[in-house]
Amino acid sequence: MNYYKLKDKVLITNEDLSFEKVCEGDLKNFNGHVFYGDKKPLDSFRSFFKINSTEDLKEETLEILKNHKNSNDYPSILLNAINENRASFVNLNNDSFKDIINNCNPKKWRVNVVGLGDVGGTLITGLRLLGGDIVESIGIFDLDKNKIDRWIFECNQILDINNPTAPYIEEVKEDELFNCNMFVFCVSVGVPEVGREKEDVRLVQFGGNKKVLSLYAKKARENNFTGIFSVVSDPVDLLCKVAFNESNKNSNGEFDFKGLKSHQIKGFGLGVMNARANHFAMENLETKNYLEEGRAFGPHGEGLLIINSMTNYNEDLSNMLTHKTKTANLKIRSAGFKPYIAPALSSGSISLIATMSGKWHYSANFIGGTFMGCKNIETPYGTCIETYDFPSNVFEKLQNTYDYLNSIYK
């Protein structure tokens, strides 16, 4: 095993690298950031993440959602760092792995949003109202210049004199969209009109949204974007995979993995499903504990899995909450309205702010090549996915959802 000192961090790996080597004995009292580096396939293993256990360092599957004990086959310096929540994995197959090691999140974020329809407009309103502590500015772009003008006037006129730190809304040109710390994709193409739904509304949008998102994924590559690429448009899980694939192809359409890294892409659709599950849970005395004990997994649509309680699991109650949550958007549509307000705020503004602030939230993240929705948190050590001792039969259902997502778009 080799030990390398990189300023105030340590990299442990079996690989021979051109960095300053140090002896293991010299690191006995080291209590800083420890990286474990290994060469893993970039299409099926994350580029950077916080290590929950040594099990994370093996083949990447849904098993990373389970609680595991550490293996003693690894150096004590790494095991101590894992136990003390200061250990990261970095994939050495990335040409820019040193940049990943040296990268750090800003104190205040520059956020750029493309797409100012119902969701985009509501989302930036939420960011303006709630993001003052973490958001420095909100850049907006849409092909319709009138929408840009409208939202600049409207949002900048939302003001609380007791809280003057609200981020300023400003226009950005299309070629400036990736001059930011977080890019937010809210473009929606082909949303069915109310009353004309024949199948899953989210999947209907996939074809049109995929074409547009592909263009922005390639622009992210061209601009060497190192921030977070956030997908809010439906279906977020599948569009995240599009962003990863399309940004990592060269001009000949061949994969070279010089685009967006897997840890940069996050899909924001599960936040509203968790919020809807809690809404329905509050109607029943047996499920009122959902907010504390329950969890949401999977996509923003077919394949969703709502668990009434991770400690007192009840299959009937979980199935009931899953069904009500999954069909809630159709209930709103039956009343004659498009269901965009709660998604734009719960999945969008609130979850984006939680991401930037280093707080727990729901989002879809790269796991073994598929983007899977779960509860997670962004830390200085990378994305940390919440882990569980799964109730009986739940993990099998979760695996079915994972396989379903993987089968739709590879």
From TrEMBL:
SUPFAM superfamilies named in the record: NAD(P)-binding Rossmann-fold domains (SSF51735)
Domain named Lactate/malate dehydrogenase N-terminal: residues: 110-251
Superkingdom of source: Bacteria
One Gene Ontology term from the biological process aspect of the record: lactate metabolic process
Molecular function GO labels: L-lactate dehydrogenase (NAD+) activity
Name under which the protein is recorded: Malate/lactate dehydrogenase
Species annotation: Clostridium frigidicarnis
Origin organism lineage: Bacteria, Bacillati, Bacillota, Clostridia, Eubacteriales
